[in-house]
From TrEMBL:
Native organism taxonomy: Bacteria, Bacillati, Bacillota, Clostridia, Thermoanaerobacterales
GO molecular function: ATP binding; proton-transporting ATP synthase activity, rotational mechanism
One cellular-component annotation, GO: proton-transporting ATP synthase complex
Function: Produces ATP from ADP in the presence of a proton gradient across the membrane. The gamma chain is believed to be important in regulating ATPase activity and the flow of protons through the CF(0) complex.
Keywords: ATP synthesis, Cell membrane, CF(1), Hydrogen ion transport, Ion transport, Membrane, Transport
Family as reported in the entry's similarity comment: Belongs to the ATPase gamma chain family.
Protein's cellular compartments: Cell membrane; Membrane
Protein name: ATP synthase gamma chain
Organism this protein belongs to: Ammonifex thiophilus
GO terms for biological process, alphabetical: proton motive force-driven plasma membrane ATP synthesis
Amino acid sequence: MPSLRDYRRRIKSLQSTQKICQAMKAVATAKMAKAQAALLAARPYSRHLREVLARLARAAGDVRHPLLAVREPRKVCYVVMTADRGLCGGFNSNLLRLAMREIGACTGEVALIAVGRKGRNFFRFRRMAMDAEFTGLGEEIRFAYAREIAKVIINKYSAGEYDAVYLIYPQFINILVQRPIAQKVLPIEPPTEEPKAKGPEPLYIFEPSAEGVLCDLLPKYVETAIFHALLELKAGEHSARMTAMDAATKNTEDLIARLTLKMNRVRQESITKELLDIVGGAAALES
């Protein structure tokens, strides 16, 4: 049976752990607010870019571009986005579980690009080859990071090495919900939604040509999709870590309360035993 000193040592250790969890929760809360603000600011741009692409694609007619080429998916690339660090509950596990499910359902050859240390270590441990890896993106997501990732997949898709490219990332719903999704980015399939404004569609004049305009717009669309996924990843990571640290703090409180109760019982038993010894000794002297 643990002694009174063992209980005190255990409670002190839990109190130190509780302070660490509270500090990590406070840091994650501050970072989450900043990441969420950046995500909400970027969503309108991504939405309007899709709308512009839809209108231009309809106005351009039959325009050929390597990123619009649809081929039989003999080789599919999955860009798996995870966090660089853990201590965020099942955030990374849910993303990797979806990635393995998508890989298992793919009938063709699979290529992997890992974004984040957790995903890279996961695939390395299982000896799964990766065409590229991107880690250490930092707390502030910059568009240059998305451009580097997009450059790799655009070049390989244009060269015919990939027949389809999917992004696997967490969609930020709210602080408590981050839904892992798989989004197809290549080949680019322009959205087919109709313009919200009523009346005839505007007439577009392309300068120098429709091919030239789409040649600049389509890579930008891929880069924006990756940048948006990175922002979703960062906001979801901090939200999941904040929730996990809050749960850990509450768990340590429960453990401390239970251990304190047990410690008081042990101390009361020792006091009672000492009192019985004293009473027994006094009774023996009187007799």
